[in-house]
Amino acid sequence: MRPRPWRSVVVAVLALVAVVAVGGAATGLWGMLSGSEASQFRGLTESVPWDEAISAPTIAPRATPEPTFDLQQHSTSDPASPWVIVNKQHPVAEEYEPTDLVDVDGVRVRAAVEPDLRAMVDAAGAAGARLVVRSGFRSYAEQAAGRAAIEARRGFAHAERYSARPGFSEHQTGLAVDLDSGSEPGCNLQTCFTRTTEGVWLAEHAWEFGFVVRYTEANTAVTGYAPEGWHLRWVGRELTAHLHAEGIGSLEEAFGVVGGPEYVGG
């Protein structure tokens, strides 16, 4: 009688199971099989590596996406927003004035700025950097008077690089401050401020308190202003931590907002 076709397959499978169970005892099973069955079994075992034959497929765990920082939390155009961007392309309305100004060392700033400003001045002092708050909020009229004085003293070109036209100043938002060096007052409002103890400390630590050094040598082309190591802008610690971690050099770059050296309208 001819052997039934399925008998060879069944015998081969049983033999394979036995080999997996008893390891080295597999050679004794060859004698249990007919010549053709042994040949089939040998081909099966030689074509499939043992670790692949007995191991379940490995499924890589699905990667958890990194959380992204939400840059849509606040407006960049509303002057009352902590993230408003004011530059030569984005002015503030002449009549705008914050409604929550408070006094810090004789200057006015938005209420949200006060705790971080005081904490920063205290931390700097503990580290040997004597920060003096020089100016905060300026109204449209105050900015106009200050700009006119600088232009009369230093010329139009100098004023364009260092002093905003009225309506284009961050100081009108109440979110910006100018700081002096208590250790080297001769560098106040001067480019050498960045080399003072206070200027160096601010460049390294201002972000820890929610402030950015707004105008730096690296971002001049973007912001439109020459470097001012003394001019700080408060945006809150959450945003400054993001900017610091990502190495983002300006608010314009962070939010994709147009800036540059030219005023809107010329």
Automatic annotation (TrEMBL):
InterPro entries: DD-CPase-like (IPR052179), VanY-like_core_dom (IPR003709), VanY/YodJ_core_dom (IPR058193), Zn_M74/Hedgehog-like (IPR009045). Residues 59-82 are annotated as: Disordered. It comes from the Bacteria. Residues 70-79 have a biased composition (Polar residues). Pfam families: VanY. Residues 108-236 form the D-alanyl-D-alanine carboxypeptidase-like core domain. PANTHER family: D-ALANYL-D-ALANINE CARBOXYPEPTIDASE, PEPTIDOGLYCAN L-ALANYL-D-GLUTAMATE ENDOPEPTIDASE CWLK. This is D-alanyl-D-alanine carboxypeptidase-like core domain-containing protein. It comes from Cellulomonas phragmiteti.
